[in-house]
């Protein structure tokens, strides 16, 4: 059967009755012997939840019977809380006297479909049909209506809705539905399979939250009827009616604002219908859009610079749980038997076998010998994960396709996943407690597909910026910088140690000493020639696989910028690039461990010469700003086009301060001696010169929303300043560095700035996360077909060429055509 379309509507009382198998009237659930009572909420006609019992309606047992609905006949109607707004707008749209829609027929275009919002605009104050003045209707939250000063009960609302003619409803967009159904007279009772009871070990029964709520409704319904039959006073009946409205409302939604939530006897909030659907853990996002899966594992991650970039270290305890199906044939029969022999506890063993008839059998220490005799071609042995197996590795949030990549297994001791530091960039992982997930593809097809499309090597370049995203990071960059900067020489013993610890296959000459550049060149692909600017200044020149000039830093091997890595990937392919990256990063780590590298707070000390310069600079900034303020006060300041004099002054001050910070950076560059902190900043390993300026010299101007700090009291940030003081200190200028320390005012200004950036960051991530959820929802069924068109699930063409240009952004050349490189290649 093909589903043509789905339409959502409201159930009519007739439909509810027709789909029901039982009318629920009794408040008790079970009799003395513990059998469900007929007419009670656990009525045996509503389905089965206990094994060994057959359904009274369909005759099936547990699992086969989906359950059947019942109903409660409500003594007085109540309003459906989730339709409250709809009822409200509908009431405002119809005449209280003649129950006709309050629009002028002449203004209505009957071919058009109006939204409720549009219709509300067409409503007349006086009824166009009977000419009566309309009353003032008020919705008193959560679910009462007052007209002028009379309460509009659900009975009255229902009566009014019943009298609306069909033609008027048609204009309002009603299809296959009457508005009076929004007021509940018959309440459908969900099958027991929806709200199964649990039998505790003590033999006691524990009922579902929905059943508890329904018991309340049946009970109050009973009492209301009794009181009406007895002719009880109106206020008692109204109270009971109100209570019934409360119970039915909280049955639908237990989180209505202004309504005290229904609680369990223990004080726990009841989880009713809405709560089952809503949120991440609800039915939609928790059970339908996302499910728990088999053959997956999750644990904390740790770094391991010695494993390959495309490997993942898997703990043995996980390897013996996760399995791969091994299809037994003549050539692997012996191997399969070995796995079975090891059993479920010894790695590498096997946990289950699947017989040719599809039956699955657990391998135990007792039956493994028997199984070994039994297995033959056609059997499947679910063997443990072993080295080289293909797995998918993922870290959330999965924001781009590199968030899940295919790795090769390396079974290890201990209890964490191990990964090479170069892949932390695409995963955005660090090791402060991050956890990652591992999935084992179960079919050969899935394994091949994963390896061909999702392998780490295939994802070295990011389609976002068309440059390596799997690259050297922090210590790798520092190490390579120290190795290749200047003409550092290594004795024969030293260079042998370094090179051999990385790669045993590299050919070494028997030179007395080697420079860092020569050592680095050993790992470059033969014949590679490239020239570019490095981050730390100066050109990097590589000719015929030899580093002749320049320093290797972030510009060569770092993420987003790594030009050298980029070139190697393009000319020699992903595998060579991968190997190169692994070799040079291990070399860098080796160098650092061998020779040591540490930073200290004294790195930030300024030499006397610099201190003098800084003082001069600070005086200059102050003088400039004072001058500008003076000019402004005299009205002589040059006013910028489109700005007020005050804004022009602010602009000028901001520029002066920014230039001041730049000059401070220059002073730092000129006067500070080379030290480890500077090395990290210069090589691009970590931090920035600005960070050092802020600690060693001055923090500079603190800003909120791109302006000098304005808020606080009228005309001043603190009561300690004069009103309308526009001097540097009063507006958040911090003239000291973090190392020297900040004054209380400066500290507070800095905190203002910090708070803003903190909030910005967290709001931005939340915002973009939600935007992504919506995009994924809208685009998830788009697919590139084999004919190259992008189509949706209905096979409609969305784009003739993916991205409308068919260009793979990860394979783009960012800097256009390099004629020189082509010429060099052609003519040597
Ligand atoms: Mg972390
Ligand atoms: Zn049944
Ligand atoms: Zn009227």
Strands, helices and their partners?
Blueprint: H1 13-18, E1 20-23, E2 69-79, H2 84-93, H3 116-122, E3 137-140, E4 144-147, E5 150-152, H4 154-163, H5 166-171, E6 183-189, E7 198-199, E8 205-206, H6 209-229, H7 234-252, H8 273-277, H9 283-288, E9 296-303, E10 311-315, H10 316-319, E11 323-327, H11 333-342, E12 350-354, E13 360-362, H12 368-374, E14 380-384, E15 390-394, E16 404-412, E17 417-419, H13 424-427, E18 435-439, H14 444-454, E19 461-462, E20 467-468, H15 475-484, E21 489-491, H16 492-502, E22 513-515, H17 516-521, E23 530-533, E24 539-543, E25 546-549, H18 554-557, H19 563-572, H20 574-595, H21 608-634, H22 645-671, H23 676-683, H24 689-696, E26 700-701, E27 703-704, E28 707-708, E29 733-734, H25 744-779, E30 783-784, E31 790-791, E32 797-799, H26 819-827
Parallel strand pairs: 1-2, 9-17, 10-16
Antiparallel strand pairs: 2-6, 3-4, 4-5, 7-8, 9-18, 10-17, 11-14, 12-13, 12-14, 15-16, 15-18, 19-20, 21-22, 23-24, 24-25, 26-29, 27-28, 30-31, 31-32
Magnesium ion (MG) binds at residues 430, 432, 434.
